[in-house]
């Protein structure tokens, strides 16, 4: 085999290996490839998670809404957002919520080098821990798309990757409280890990309003069905 062809095949194999974990971002494939990655938990529990904060324009409103029912959640924080609003990160923990890592920058990991990925995850983890005083346990990659480098970065940072079983498609410009709730409840919520967003920093402007509008009814539905809503730490995974 010619050296150039051998190098090309090696590069191709490395690229496939790097991107192969991204297949878990496809909802129908995830239960087959990595059933635990979605975060299925105890059948009587629903894990409520929020991505992309903390955002001074919106996160306090979510905190106020959750406080009405005493509901706790897990907030996957972006390092660059926490750096701008550290006091809000501390407020999350003071209110009893769990904080987790969403990375430093909300950039696709498939186009980032292994070194950049490891630095991104470790930098965000360190900031979350130092600002909030809570050592994060969970990692969710931007867009829910993993790479081999991201898995390695999470492992070396002492973090467990977790995606979701249910989402509200609440990041779109057309999202409404009704559409968010309808999308979330298409399949049973028992044991679900729910993905929502408390910020529009990577979503359509003001899309968080649809999420906030759907939240009270979501909590009501769970209560009506005998489901306890809480953070990932109480989800039994």
Short description:
This protein is 42% helix and 13% strand. By secondary structure, the chain is of the alpha/beta class.
Summarize the structure in words.
With 237 residues, the chain is α/β, with parallel strands linked by helices. It is 42% helix and 13% strand. It is built from nine helices and eight strands. The strands form two sheets. Strands 1, 2, 3, 6, 7 and 8 form a six-stranded parallel sheet that branches. The protein has a two-stranded parallel ribbon with strand order 4-5. Helix 3 (59-69) runs parallel beside helix 9 (208-224), helix 6 (114-132) runs parallel beside helix 7 and helix 8 crosses helix 9. The longest helix is centred in the middle third of the chain and has 19 residues, at 114-132. The radius of gyration is 18 Å and the shape is globular. It starts with a helix and ends in a 7-residue tail after the last strand. 44% of the residues are buried. Mean pLDDT is 88; it is low at 3-24.
